[in-house]
Design brief:
The protein is an alpha+beta fold and about 325 residues long. The protein contains five helices and 19 strands. The longest helix has about 35 residues. The radius of gyration is 22 Å and the shape is elongated. The termini are far apart. The chain binds FE2/S2 (inorganic) cluster. The site of FE2/S2 (inorganic) cluster has 8 residues, from loops.
Length: about 325
């Protein structure tokens, strides 16, 4: 079988491209990873993904139709089956040539559609640590930023004092906080102990009295996650899946996990959601303004400061470089 090779210039991994309920069995959907267009559609109850380029003359398969579970190119009507192989060529007399559209592996988890770039060694990351969390709600946002900056921003507590003042964190009750950083393969963990009450509107809405522990987790190459724990249980988890799409944009698909009975978690989610959107808008603004400011300069000079505890790992893992495993925690102290 012949067909173009995988052309996506991104680190190997799973990339979220859509919410599951956005993909239809009637109309193909276009999405992007790293400026490469993909087409998604649903057949036999599964979501399929191909590079959105017909191997014949390169027409957009997403402009075509889905017929009998096959995707039909709008130009000469070639139809490709769920495995990407050419299944029908209208007007052809004789044997069908062995031609294929470029297929990418897909997976669905918690209402999100993942596409594999390269051959990831593990299934898509989801946080399965907490039995008390039965409610996960997918949300999405978008920002014009470097993906490493977006990942770091998601995990960085110090900017919250300034960018999200009184919303995510209050400035009046900072506490000496011990940060324990461990790293193994693609997984890097920062555990913040001793923050106490975070303050701010979001913590109040979560009824978060004492933040006994918060966790920032990076799972390479493109997942950032935060957890807030009270003294006896987890209060909030948000997993952010970052996908570089096109024209310098990064799509952030989030999964918000809340503990408790589902009706209660749902209610809490709808109370929190407007504030999560406001936090996202503030992050969008600072990331975009920082990016456009940096574009005014030729050099890419930046400093990894002593409180940027995850940045070197994010950059190394995304670049496919080795770094020393840290199974014994590295300790940093900061006032949060
Ligand atoms: Fe797709 Fe010709 S370009 S069938």
């Amino acid at each position: 079988m012949t067909g173009p090779t995988n052309p996506i210039p991104a680190p190997t991994g799973w990339y979220v491209v859509a919410k599951e309920n956005e993909v239809s069995a009637k109309k193909p959907m276009r999405c992007w990873i790293h400026d490469i267009p993909l087409v998604l559609y649903r057949t036999d109850g599964e979501i399929r993904a191909f590079v959105d380029r017909c191997p014949h003359r390169g027409a957009k398969l997403s402009d075509g139709k889905i017929r009998d579970g096959k995707i039909e190119c709008p130009y000469h009507g070639w139809r490709f089956g769920p495995d990407g192989a050419l299944a029908e060529m209208p007007c052809l007399v004789g044997t069908l040539p062995r031609i294929s559209a470029t297929k990418l592996e897909t997976a669905v988890a918690r209402g999100l559609v993942f596409v594999a770039v390269g051959q990831p060694a593990e299934p898509p990351y989801t946080n399965d640590e907490f039995d008390e969390i039965q409610f996960w709600r997918p949300i999405r946002g978008e920002v014009k930023a470097d993906i490493a900056d977006a990942l770091e921003n998601f995990l960085d507590p110090t900017h919250t004092i300034f960018v999200h003042r009184q919303l995510v964190r209050s400035v009046t009750n900072s506490n000496r906080t011990r940060v324990e950083i461990t790293a193994q393969d693609q997984h890097v963990l920062a555990r913040y102990l001793g923050e106490g009450q975070a303050g701010g509107v979001v913590a109040a809405l979560m009824n978060e009295k004492d933040r006994a522990l918060s966790v920032g987790r990076f799972v390479g190459p493109n997942v950032a996650e935060v957890e807030f724990h009270g003294p006896s249980s987890v209060n909030f988890v948000m997993t952010g899946y970052m996908t570089p799409t096109r024209d310098g944009l990064v799509s952030g698909f989030g999964l918000v996990g809340l503990p408790g009975p589902k009706w209660w978690a749902r209610l809490k989610f709808w109370l929190l959601y407007p504030w999560i959107k406001l936090v996202h808008a503030q992050d969008q603004k600072i990331l975009q303004r920082t990016r456009s400011n940096n574009e005014a300069f030729q050099d890419k000079r930046q400093i990894v400061g002593p409180l940027d505890v995850l940045r070197n790992y994010i950059d190394a893992i995304r670049a496919g470089k080795n770094y020393p495993a840290a199974t014994e925690p590295r300790i940093v102290e900061m006032n949060l």
